[in-house]
Design goal:
130 residues, mainly beta, 7-stranded mixed sheet, 4-stranded antiparallel sheet, 11 strands, 8% helix, 45% strand
């Protein structure tokens, strides 16, 4: 059974930084792709960044150049380094793991798998004050 646990959220001032962690267990991590998503109050969940099993990355336009997604296969963990944070980044951040089902898939297929059938954690709150 795939288990996903996010950590690292908190309260930070605008312009500050945070690093979120997504720890995954119960799956062969090296073939697992991970996506970070966020949901602000009253808004739909949105994709933030994705890293494939092979290390390829994709970012939403709103975070490109400010956030960096990376993975450490020795620790079964994916990180989201968030710099130059803005109040608009305030949200609950979630990660989704595909468990390997998207291995080798095209980006559209992988994104669909992560969004619709991935294993999700409980989220971590990020609050950016102005």
């Amino acid at each position: 059974q795939v288990q996903v646990a996010e950590s690292g959220g908190g309260l930070v001032q605008a312009g500050g930084s945070l690093r979120l962690s997504c720890a995954v267990s119960g799956v062969t991590f090296s073939v697992t792709s991970i996506g970070w998503y966020r949901q602000a109050p009253g808004k739909q969940r949105e994709l933030v960044a994705v890293i494939s099993a092979g290390g390829s990355t994709k970012y939403s336009d709103s975070v490109k150049g400010r956030f960096t997604i990376s993975r450490d296969n020795t620790k079964n963990t994916v990180y989201l380094q968030m710099n130059s944070l803005e109040p608009e980044d305030t949200a609950v951040y979630y990660c989704s793991a595909d468990g390997g089902s998207g291995y080798g898939a095209t980006w559209p297929t992988l994104l669909a798998i992560l969004s619709n059938s991935g294993s999700w954690g409980q989220g971590t709150q990020v609050t950016v004050s102005s």
